[in-house]
Write a structure and sequence with these properties.
By secondary structure, the protein is of the alpha/beta class. It has helices at 18-33, 46-49, 53-66, 88-95, 112-115, 129-135, 215-221, 226-229, 244-252, 260-263, 267-275, 286-290, 298-305, 331-343, 345-360, 362-373; strands at residues 4-8, 37-44, 73-77, 83-85, 98-104, 117-124, 147-150, 169-171, 192-197, 205-207, 210-212, 233-238, 256-258, 279-282, 310-313, 325-328. It folds into two domains: 4-173 and 362-373, Rossmann fold; 178-359, Rossmann fold (3-Layer(aba) Sandwich). The relative contact order is 0.14.
Length: 377
């Protein structure tokens, strides 16, 4: 019999975030391409979103239709489990059970759908945060899962300080649908770009006397990058008006800032922005860097698939050496990396796509994931 898999994740809860939309829908469509019977479920608290809830629902519905999975997806109320959007028959099917729950960031915590999945896999997108919160006693539902996966590729390896307790975290690279990210032509490097939230959603993290900074703290370390890099650096940056001083600091050092709502506010604009860039240049959350978690970004994965080289802050990820993929730890590192990408841009473009084909292809990543999660095909 064809295995039935439920993918749970936040989509309506992240309105206007084109990148997050690619993450959740890629898991659904990638598993479907492997011959799996897949359903998508999301929980939304209308009380938490208040007057914004209808816009969240509209965003989710439109996005699911764009990816052709609306008829296999449901959005349910966090308070009473009632159907908010999607076919009722899908919710009824989910109440009958499934072979595996793919629980992205532990989104689904309880209820009939959660309870009637025979196996549950937790997919962690925020290494260090997830494990430290769990170690500090936060109830993330980690123990209620049979297998655990993380884009923290270094968890459990020498040098990584993320506390794991009794949980065995298996590394999983972000899957990419390669045919959706075919490279556009481009002969010159041009601008470096990235998509970022200045503070992220979590704030400062403290554990065992160590204070871990946010992405804002890392950006401040590299404020002066535009000069040494010698190329336009552009951020599609979500930054609060209260951080006007930081915004002015970035502009004063030569960063270009664009509105993420305009540049990457839906999946197609997000893809166009990445494909229209010369390369990615980005820092990481302080916790990812300081713990040597090996965090590897789904955003970076999509740049690579689009044939765009990446120059990103080193988090300790153990990855095969490849053209198109460069890491930095200092401003001087970043300047050298940028010069190297510029000098051999065509080779690095080809290397970026080749790395994606060899390591990020959804068929390869998710096929291995299913085996590790204990589900056959």
């Amino acid at each position: 019999m064809t295995p039935r898999v439920v993918v749970a994740g936040a989509l309506a809860n992240k309105p206007g975030n084109g990148g997050e939309a690619w993450v959740r829908t890629t898991w659904v469509r990638g598993l479907e391409r492997l011959g799996i019977d897949v359903r998508f479920v999301e929980v939304l608290s209308g009380a938490a979103w208040g007057d914004a809830a209808p816009a969240c629902v509209e965003w989710s519905t439109r996005t699911l239709r764009r990816f052709g999975i609306a008829e296999r997806s449901v959005l349910v109320d966090a308070d009473d489990g009632g159907l908010i959007a999607g076919p009722r028959r899908v919710l009824e099917e989910l109440h009958e059970g499934a072979d595996l729950l793919v629980n992205i960031s532990g989104h689904l915590r309880s209820g009939p759908v959660f309870e009637r999945c025979r196996r549950r896999a937790y997919v962690d997108l925020d290494p260090a945060y997830t494990q430290i919160w769990h170690d500090q006693g936060a109830d993330l539902g980690i123990a209620e899962h049979d297998s655990h996966f993380s884009v923290g590729l270094n968890l459990g390896r020498p040098g990584c300080t993320v506390p794991l307790g009794d949980t065995h975290w298996q590394a999983v690279l972000p899957p990419v649908l390669l045919d959706e990210w075919t490279p556009d032509p481009g002969d010159e490097l041009g601008r470096f770009t990235t998509v970022a939230s200045w503070r992220g959603g979590y704030g400062v993290l403290e554990h065992d006397g160590v204070r871990y900074g946010s992405k804002a703290h890392e950006f401040r370390r590299f404020t002066a990058l535009p000069g040494p890099v010698g190329a336009p650096l552009e951020l599609a940056l979500d930054i609060h008006p209260a951080d006007e001083r930081d915004r002015c600091l970035l502009l004063g050092h030569g960063w270009r800032l664009v509105d993420p709502a305009e540049a990457v506010g839906d999946p197609d604009r997000y893809r166009a922005y990445l494909r229209g860039s010369g390369a990615e240049l980005s820092v990481a959350q302080g916790a990812y860097v300081q713990t040597r978690s090996g965090w590897f970004s789904d955003r970076t994965a999509h740049y690579l698939a689009a044939g765009r080289p990446v120059l990103v802050q080193d988090t300790g990820a153990s990855l095969p050496a490849s053209d198109g993929l460069r890491f930095f730890t200092s401003t001087d590192d970043a300047a050298r990396g940028a010069a190297e990408l510029r000098a051999r841009y065509g080779e690095h473009r080809a290397g970026a796509r080749r790395f994606a084909e060899e390591h990020l292809d959804a068929a390869r990543v998710l096929g291995r994931f299913l085996e590790q999660a204990g589900v056959g095909r």
